[in-house]
Structure formats: C-alpha cells, structure tokens
UniProtKB/TrEMBL annotation:
Pfam families: Methyltransf_11
Protein name, as recorded: SAM-dependent methyltransferase
UniProt GO molecular function: S-adenosylmethionine-dependent methyltransferase activity
UniProt KW keywords: Methyltransferase, Transferase
GO biological process: methylation
The UniProt record lists the keyword Transferase: yes
Domain Methyltransferase type: 51-140
C-alpha cells in the first residue's frame, strides 16, 4: 500500500518537477524488472541488457546501472532525448514501431507509459517481442485512457473526450498541452492490452495494475471496472 500511495502521489509532479516523478518511477521500474526477471530466470539484473522503448531523457539510466544492467533507451524525438540535460551512453534514436535492433538482441525489453503515446501501440508491442531473446522478458506498462490519469495534464476532462480536454486546456493555459490528443496521445484501453496478451506468441507471465497492491490485482479481470480503476496496465511476458 505504501508503494501504491508513493507512486500515485508522484503524479502531481509530472509536469512541474519531472525528476521527482520519473525518479520514483525509475526506482520502481528497476525493482519490478529485477523481481520478475529473477522469478523467470533465477538471475538478477547484473550483466543483463535492458532495452527501454521510449526511454525519453534518461531518468531511468542510473537506477538500472546501479542494478548492474546494461541500459539502452530508444526514443524517436531528439528534443525529448535531451530534455533533462542528461547524457546516456548508448542511447538510440528510433521508433518503437520499428525498433532498430536485430531479432533476439536483448534480455529484457521494457516500456513504461509509452504505448498511449504511439499511434500503433500493438505494433510496438510486437516489436518488443521480436527483439527479445528466447527466454527473455517483455514488460509493457501503459496508462489506461479511462483511468484517472488517462488524459495526463488535460485530465479529468478527457472523460468528456480527448478533443474537448485539449481545447479546454488551451483556453485555460494559453498554450497547447504537451500531450496532444490524436497526435502524441491516444485512447488506449485495458481491454486492448488484454487482447494483445491473448494473441502474442510470447508466454504471458502475469497481467496486473501497476499502481495497486497485490490484493487488488483482480481488477484487471472485470470489464468496465478495469477501464476506470486500473490506471496503468502491465503485461509481463516471456519469449518462448
């Protein structure tokens, strides 16, 4: 419960102090991947290659380096890569929908809060499976549109439609939102991720709501409720 409250509380800093928001998310991500990778392979992250699809400005790099992993972020937007003034050795500019890596290249392919910013998120998910080696881990975590944070900075008005929420944001703030509906933010449902989990050739290890304690993981099994309360869906899969 403490973990859930800490992660949910950090959302108020997403726009005003990204280092606080992404720093906490980075720690949680490294711990989450370490736990699942140990569960699946019996190994920790030491010496493991982690490909972070949509790694952005590199807030996650230090946490994965501290765990001993070789961390490689992929980001299509050069301004986003350098937004925080951080330098990540080995960072790659490229699209998640056509990852510039060979088949079976990495031990773990990870994406956090990116699928909702991609026009073809399930093409990206398929690419994540492709570049992961057999026996490796795919971890896809994304924000559910009808959850409380689905509209990002335009919420909670996204419940009245993405276009309306964007127009309201422009009227109130006098500028475009960073996440522009239909351009850099899309309505991705929990059901979409579950449908992908059913068809992917990877073996699904678990599906759960990221910001909830384990006793609330049952929420992902209930239609409608999962769209409103899951907030962030995580699909963990193992490449056969």
């Amino acid at each position: 419960m403490r973990r859930s409250l800490r992660l949910l509380g950090s959302f108020r800093y997403e726009q005003t102090d990204p280092a606080v928001f992404y720093g906490g998310l980075a720690r949680d991500s490294a711990e989450m991947l370490s736990d699942f990778y140990t569960e699946v392979t019996g190994r920790g992250l030491d010496g493991v290659t982690v490909l972070d699809v949509g790694g952005g400005p590199g807030y996650f790099a230090d946490e994965f380096a501290a765990a001993g992993a070789r961390y490689i972020p992929v980001e299509p937007d050069p301004s986003e890569l350098h937004a925080a003034g951080l330098s990540v050795p080995g960072a790659v500019r490229g699209s998640g929908m056509a990852l510039p890596f060979r088949d079976n290249a990495v031990d773990i392919c990870f994406s956090s809060n990116v699928a909702e910013h991609v026009p073809q998120p399930w093409t990206m998910a398929d690419e994540m499976v492709r570049v992961t080696r057999p026996g490796g881990l795919i971890v896809l975590s994304y924000t559910v549109w009808l959850g409380p944070f689905g509209g990002h900075e335009t919420g909670p008005w996204h419940y009245l439609g993405g276009d309306y929420a964007a127009r309201r944001y422009r009227r109130k703030h006098g500028r475009e939102p960073k996440n522009r509906f239909g351009v850099s933010m899309f309505a991705v449902r929990a059901a979409d991720g579950l449908r992908w989990a059913e068809r992917t050739p990877a073996r699904v290890h678990t599906v759960f709501p990221r910001y909830h304690p384990r006793w609330a993981w049952w929420l992902v099994r209930v239609p409608v409720i999962r769209e409103l309360l899951v907030s962030n869906l995580v699909v963990v899969a193992v490449k056969p």
